[in-house]
Each structure stands twice: as structure tokens, then as C-alpha cells.
Amino acid sequence: MLLCLDIGNTQIHGGVFDGDHLRLQFRKTTHPLGSSDELGVFFAAVLRENGLEPRAIKRVAICSVVPPALYALRAACVKYFHCEAFVLQAGVKTGLKVRYRNPHEVGADRIANAIAVTQRHPGRDAIVIDCGTATTFDVVTAGGDYLGGAILPGLGISAEMLQSRTARLPAVEITRPEAALGRTTTESIQSGLYHGHVGALRQLVAELTREAFPNSSPVIVGTGGFSRMFEGEGLFKELVPELVLWGLHRAELLNREEQ
Question: Which stretches in the chain have pLDDT values below 50?
Fold first, then answer.
């Protein structure tokens, strides 16, 4: 079995694949990360609590936007799973042609999302919207060219900034409001966060489509921890919260076959 780990700024999103079947997903806060032993014990405990034996893990694939986390994670894989982890990074096989001016700047999670969307929608132009700590847009052509995209603060960051940078605005639960017209400060903040984000998503999809695909209609795929909140807005053709894990699964397979 294959253990896939997406190391984000806020959370570690993990998944276990048995062949092409995603058997298990779990999440852990990224900070504090913990030592290699703490990570290994955590992963082993999660597997056992869900009916899987740690020794069944034969391979591990990692993508990370937190570079300092890689050393401890790699060491945990060697000690607890007896394998060297595959790390999605510059120089590995992805099946994409990265057209960023500096390909090394592209986050590994964004590449994983792009890999996955080309597998789910072969021969289609696509835009992936990943609603996480940051909300990212990734534009991929039908021919597998990764063109770039856009990044804006995610819902969590926006809420934290309002609370920390103002004297009287409170921390609020991030949720879809019942109405745009807030009648309390909390309702007003929730409305602004949600509907403001929806507006930003619609506008950026329109602009990216106009610039990258003026003669076609790209498939819009939503993913990330906050993506389900926007499920009823008609923004996405497909919603796959675990898309990054599927991209890691595919990247690990591509590189294993090449070896």
C-alpha cells in the first residue's frame, strides 16, 4: 500500500491507497510538527485505529510547502515504514510541461493537483481551485501544459486578519451564512468572508478563462478543505477534496515505472 502525505501550512492531509482504491484519509495539524519518532508513532496509530497494519505500507509519497518538515518526515518513513519516501519536487517526472517563468517556484501541492486533473479529465483544458490556507488557481491545458494561475488569501487567513488587525471585530466561525445581509457583527463578517470569496472565485475563473482559453470552456475542479462550503454555488464542474492525494498517487507511480 501507498501512504500519501500532503504537508500544508496548516494541516497534514494523509491518505492510504491500496492499488487505485483510496482506503483511508486523515488530517493532523502541521504545527507543532514533532520529531520523526512522534510523526512515526502518530502515523502508525492512525493506521491501526482504522484497521490497517503499518507494515502493509510499502511506499510513501510526499508533497510539501513546508520545507523544514521534510527531514523529520523522511526519517519517520525510513524508521517506521522501512522505505525512502518519494518527494514530489523539481526534477521528478510529472507528465506536465511547466510553463511558469521559474518552475522551482510552483508549490508541490499545485503540481499534484495539476497532475490529478489531467488524469481525471484527459484532453480537457482545466482550472483547479484549491480552497485551503490560501486559495490557489491552477491553469492546465488539454495538452498537459501547466500555465500558472492565481493565489489569494484563504477564508481562514482572511478571518484571522480581521480579528487580529482590528480593535473590536471578533473571531468568528467560518460558515456559509443564511443571508448576505448580516444583522449582527458576526453575521456581517461571515457574510463578507463567504460572499466576498465567492465573488473572487467567479471573477478569477472568468479572467483566467478569458486569457488562457478564449475559444474553449475549461472544466473547473474544486478541492481543498474549504471547497465543500461552496458546493451549492455552481462554481465547480467537479468537487474532489482529496485531489492532491490522487496527484501524489499518480506522480509516485510515474516515477516508480521510470525506475
Answer: none
Cell of 250: 499518480
Distances (CA, A) of 87 to 4, 70, 94, 141, 250: 10, 9, 12, 24, 12
> What is the residue-averaged pLDDT of the chain?
95
Strands 11-18 and 21-29 come out as antiparallel
Q: Which three cell numbers stand for residue 144?
A: 498537459
**Helix H segments across 21-153?**
36-49, 69-81, 108-120
Report all structural domains of the chain as residue ranges with CATH numbers, in order of start: 2-87 (3.30.420.40), 97-247 (3.30.420.40)
Kindly report whether the global pTM for this prediction surpasses the value 0.85: yes
Q: Which of 109, 125, 130, 138 does the annotation list as catalytic?
A: 109
Q: How far apart are the first and last CA of the chain?
A: 18
User: Is 20 annotated as catalytic?
Assistant: no
